[in-house]
Design a protein that fits this description.
Radius of gyration: 26 Å
CATH architecture of the largest domain: Up-down Bundle
Number of domains: 2
Largest sheet: none
Helix content: over 70%
Strand content: under 5%
Length: 242
């Protein structure tokens, strides 16, 4: 085993991966705390955050350089999805110049590097397979939901336009209420006051519960099927190796 292969084994090992994931989470926590302290006119810990930025920048840059070094097809890695995620993890911290500090907000994107862990990649693959399996049903559900949003907006406009013209004076104005009610969020900023409007709202809310439940059931079923298929495939591969 030559030096590059030994280095690859280390970089792709569980210990190195765990350290990088810890650094990613730590940088995310620092990012949140720093954003909260930016409201202070004089922050005595501002220098500490700059130092942490530099530390994260150096560590992530070293890790990125190592990954580029061990890859046989460096260009393919640099422009691959996960290669770009690696690059995004270090680029924002380079903008320490005041005129470019706004670009450092992009640091939040480095949290997506968590998905590079093998177990997360497998989980995302199963989720992607499940979504592809039910994509036709999801498309039909989206179209059906848009139809219900339109019909609900028309209905509440009919019942409430005279009682609350400022909120339901047009079908377009009623769309906000329709979306909020059908998704069962119910902010309460606008609500019906007439008897007909309240009865109609109850019916729309019941329909919304059904619309939310359908994709959840479809996705759960598809994920279960994807997991069973993967386990069966692993069993077949194990038998073939014997």
């Amino acid at each position: 085993m030559d030096r590059k292969e030994r280095l690859r084994a280390i970089v792709e090992g569980s210990v190195f991966t765990g350290i990088i994931q810890f650094l990613i989470l730590a940088s995310a926590v620092v990012f949140v705390i720093e954003s909260d302290r930016q409201q202070l006119e004089m922050d005595p810990y501002a220098t500490h955050f700059i130092v942490l930025d530099v530390v994260f920048l150096v560590l992530f840059s070293i890790e990125y350089a190592l990954r580029v070094y061990i890859e046989p097809k460096k260009r393919d890695f640099v422009f691959s999805f996960y290669g770009l995620i690696d690059l995004i993890a270090i680029l924002p911290s380079l903008f320490l110049v005041p005129g470019f500090r706004v670009l450092r907000i992009l640091r939040f994107l480095r949290i997506f590097r968590i998905f590079k862990a093998t177990r997360f990649i497998l989980a995302v693959d199963r989720l992607g397979a499940a979504l592809r399996e039910i994509q036709q049903e999801l498309l039909a559900l989206v179209i059906l939901s848009l139809m219900f949003v339109y019909l609900a907006a028309c209905g509440i406009h009919f019942f409430e336009r005279n009682a609350q013209p400022e909120a339901f004076g047009s079908i377009l104005d009623s769309m906000w209420w329709s979306v909020v009610t059908l998704t069962t969020i119910g902010y309460g900023d606008v609500y019906p006051t007439t008897s007909g409007g309240r009865l109609f709202t109850a019916l729309v809310a019941l329909v919304g519960v059904g619309l939310i439940a359908i994709p959840s059931g479809l996705l759960a079923s598809a994920l279960t099927e994807a997991r069973v298929e993967r386990e069966q495939m692993e069993e077949d591969e194990a038998e073939n190796e014997k």
